[in-house]
């Protein structure tokens, strides 16, 4: 964890390094995740030629790639964007049959409020999602919040 906290690697350099780590097994889930984001991994069945092509593409794009913000914020914004994508697709499918999908976690004001909270208050090592727990206290059963 200390190594990751002290690492000042730029986003472009991190992407170049990620190109070298496409095929090894991912680190254990217990490993700290303080990098620019999760390192992309290829499926074990990908051919060496395909892996080389992906590596080359990442390296080509890394030179011009810019993060969405500073390291921690970039990771949060990538997570929001990646989780919102399937919600948007489901919303479009629902609209085809006349249903309206509500996704309040992606409301601009909710995201602004969540992003305004200091990182150590969002993800403390001694609790799980304390902001959601507090917001849902009295709405969601206590045993669910305490999972």
Condensed summary:
The chain is mainly α. The protein is 54% helix and 0% strand. It has helices at 2-6, 11-20, 48-62, 71-96, 108-116, 119-122, 130-136, 142-145.
Throw out a few tags for this protein:
single chain, 147 residues, mainly alpha
Task: Write up this protein.
It is a single chain. The chain is mainly α and 147 residues long. It has helices spanning 2-6, 11-20, 48-62, 71-96, 108-116, 119-122, 130-136, 142-145. It has 8 helices and no strands. Helix 2 (11-20) runs antiparallel to helix 3. The longest helix has 26 residues, at 71-96. The radius of gyration is 19 Å and the shape is globular.
The rounded distance between the terminal residues' Cα atoms is: 25 Å
Derived structural class: mainly alpha
Strand content: under 5%
* Mean pLDDT over the full residue set: 87
Outline: globular
Give the ordered list of helices and strands. HHHHHHHH
Low-pLDDT stretches are: none
Radius of gyration from the alpha-carbon trace, in angstroms: 19 Å
Number of extended strands: 0
Number of helices: 8
Largest sheet: none
**Percent of residues in helical segments?**
40-55%
